[in-house]
Amino acid sequence: MFDFFKRWKLVGRGMDCGKRRRQVETNEFLEGLECGWIMRGILLAAFVLGIAALIFTGVQEEPAKKFLLCLLIFVTAVAQLWINHPQTMHSNARLGVLLGVLLGQLAMIKVILSQAAAGNIDLQLAPLLIPYAFAPLTLSVLLGKNHGIYAAVFASLWGSLLVGRIDPVFLVISLITGFIAVFVTLQVRRRSRLVRAGVYVGLATWILAATFGQIGPVVWELPSQTNWQMIGWQSFAAIATGIGTAVFVSGILPMLEHMFKITTDISWLEMTDLNHPLLKRLSLEAPGTYHHSLAVANLSEAAAETVGANPTICRVGSYFHDIGKLVKPQYFTENIPHGENPHDDLTPTMSALIIIAHVKEGIDLALKHKLNHEIVEVIRQHHGTSTVSYFLQRALQQQEDARLGGKIMNMRADDIPDVSEESFRYPGPRPQTKEAALVSLADSIESASRSLERPTPQRIDDLVRDLVRDRIESGQLDDAPLTIAELWRAAESFRFTLVNMLHARIAYPRRDQRDTPQGRRPEEKSAA
Fold first, then answer.
1. pLDDT (0 to 100) of residue 525
2. Is residue 518 situated within a structural domain?
3. Is 476 domain-assigned?
4. Per DSSP, what are the bridge partners of residue 387?
5. How many angstroms from the chain centroid is the CA of residue 272?
6. 297 near 318, Cβ under 8 Å?
7. pTM of this structure
8. Are residues 315 and 431 in the same domain?
């Protein structure tokens, strides 16, 4: 508050513009909720209490024994989560959505069975109305295929205990339909794929139910005695439940994404729309930067596919990584008109200050437009802690010239200003994810490729290898989860993409050459 009044006084005296950049702020309380052990313990305890409530309500045979079995399965589930999915175990948001979705499926099973026991649902239809694929489908799209398989296994085990007895038929149907739901949603980029997954799940449920005698029976010797109406309702229930589950999952996904700060591939694909206000501004106010960003997107996306990173995150991050240049677009090389360079009138330190500021300005614009947190991190990290080498070398050269001139004029060494390398260094941090590292590499490689006079495949290969080697040796990739083998696979992808982007074209003759007698077609010469 006191800082606000001080700044207000400075604004009144004309010594402050009153504007402040938005910054990524850390909140200790929110971080405690996200990563703290207390909140994690509360989530795990709430899940156990939820299972206890489902088991001990209603009529159950030996509920204490079933609860003990569920508790042992829960210990196994937590151990599996700790070993195979440590990222989820250490993120309370991801853990919360995982346990919440699992408990939601178990609650739906309990409700359907309770209604069937009360006579509100036909007992012949009840097993076919259970949404076996709800948890696997939801978690596969939200957290990935491994979490979907995890949900299919443990939801089946817990669900088989809720049925009233350990039912092997329920267990098999739940496992198989869950695995099919995960398999069909390995790469979901459109919501229509979820409906298709629901169709497959419904058909699988129908086939398995018919195999295990839950549909029918059909009296083949006396077809007239077969209850075809009930078989029709059972078939409809099996298929409609699968499709309805998928439609329901499609509807709640945006809400789950917003609540738990998780972004699915569907949402990432929606963010690739180039009609975003910032991208439209970039295309009009900084067209050079806009085309540079498109090229970086192509490079990073292709490289991501070779190293197992998320290609869509790389593409979206590349689109927005240089939006900070919108503040002063005329000071960046790709937007400078030919023959005009505003840096000629500035000192190297001031030029570097303007160049480095585009990262902070980009974060400010990203937060203002409420861009995804991962996009903000790509903007922060895409230059790491590297230096603006061109202006650093220019400053060192000016310092050396000043020293030589000082010797001639008998100036003292203390009168020559020092050059601090930190003044020419980006604030960082260094890339922390595969996607940020690939965008960072693609950004530097695409920018450097513009300086190649003759972009032959060999020159492009040398350029890519030199830049990747320099990033490795300078430690800029030390925090990124990329192996050396993955880096060189990415380098090969960069080389291949650049060779296709910068290939030579045929030099077509100009119009004035075509109009000369030598440029005429044979029939034109004969007519003349």
1. 42
2. no
3. yes
4. 425
5. 11
6. yes
7. 0.84
8. yes
